[in-house]
Input
Amino acid sequence: MRALPSPCLTVASLALTLVATPALAQSASTQALWELGAAGFGVSQQAYPGANAQVSRGLALPYFVYRGEILRADRDTAGLRAIKTERMELDIGVAGSFGARSDEIDERQGMPRLGTLIEFGPRLKWKLGQEQAGAGWRVELPLRGVFDLSDGAAHRGMAFEPKLVYQRRASAGWFYAASVSAIVADKRLAQTFYGVAPQYALPSRPSYEAQSGLVAWRLNATVGHQLSRDWRIFGFGRIDSVAGAANENSPLVKKTNGASLGLGLTYTWLRSERSAVD
Output
């Protein structure tokens, strides 16, 4: 699910993005309208920006990609593409992230777990000039409502992540991408990750009421390689920093900078003969 790297901060939030991103190593003219396959990957990820815990996951799961003119299930979202021009695109999509148990995170011992979160809302993408030799820049502006499936789809707040993205399709099936972004949350979502209610306070973890504003700065890099028509390998690295964040003084923040790494492999089992719309 661009995040998918996505504003949700729980473990394995890049799952959908990691599965679908390597497909971009193909040129737009050779992408199939839909693909069905499977992916396996391992992730070592900071539990959330500011956490001291590093959580590792190994996952294998099926994936489906659909690249229709309006209906899209590609890269880090799934939903409707409302507007598409040469320079601008507006979609309304859904993304998600897995939860994390509090017993995996020392600073959250005895507190409610971070549930499985689903995001829904619009995202504006704006190309900065024309692509040159398969490379180009764009700005992404996603605004998403966040809902907790582990708690009856309870609304957890709103997230906004303005992002500057560079991507390049190189020769011999290689794909590179890098982005820098700022994650901003309202008070309700910030409280989910950084608030400590009085009943969970300890001498080493005083009660804390989280504030809206900057959650973290994020720097992300992805590389993928098309090994054959059906097999792709990919990896990513990410750095999150809470320097200057609104809740940098939360007792749940234990370190300023944290890193995440992942490596995976995808196999395309079936694909359409028809090419993607664009």
Q: What stands out?
A: The chain has a mean pLDDT of 83.
